[in-house]
Amino acid sequence: MNTVLRHKGWTWGFRSTVLLYFIVLIVLPIIGVYANSFSEGWNNFAESIMDPIAWKAVLLTVRLAVVAALINVILGTMIAWVLTRYRFVGRSFLNSLVDLPFALPTAVGGLMIMLLLGPVSAVGKLAESLGFEIVFHQPAIVIAMTFVTFPFVIRAVQPLLEEIDPSEEEASYTMGASKARTFMQVILPSMAPGMISGGMLAFSRALAEFGAVVLVAGNIPGRTLTASVFIYGEIESDNPTGAAAVSVLLLTLSFLILWLINLVQMRGRRR
Description:
Helices cover 80% and strands 0% of the residues. It is mainly alpha-helical. Helix 2 crosses helix 15, helix 4 crosses helix 9 (138-148) and helix 10 (150-163) runs antiparallel to helix 12. The mean pLDDT is 84.
């Protein structure tokens, strides 16, 4: 078997297949988006990008994605800590539920938010009695983004917590450090790469979320119109060039985030 695997022809064919798969499914669509955005010239691209509605949609999406990512960093780190450091009944079941947003269609997540927090729900009626609404407003968008990006920080922090040598914590306690100081100086630096990379992944994923957001967001520019919903609207309005221009912004930002994630992970391995 090893002789077959080492055969140059088989190796070349395997590598070519993987490379072709990568090019067809990832590289070519990305090139197509960039090419389409500049198909009518630089001036048209600049006009599409500087369109007030498009610009407001992108800025709103970035702002809400940052909020969702910060929520996930805080809550995700806490959940990862509990699932790693404590043993209790139902722990394995809860741990398996972490990946549920990956398995569910995002539209189902949006529907769940509508049913739980919509105007006819108990929570929605309570919020309305207090003078604010959730669905079709920015809070619902943040909740949708947080839901679909929920597992990223947890799954990034968990292995780092499991790799921490207990002797390091014990040595810190032996030297008279408190639990808070031990956490800040021993545990937190070990978790930081996972928190940062997981938060960046959550932010990048939230930028592009459509399925859950489109069900709970409105179409008010600057208030509830996100970039993904704007892109969908441009396609429906037979303006693929404008949609591609905004998509290029999101793609470029995602590439930068992925580069930063790789940089953080490389520095974490060096330590």
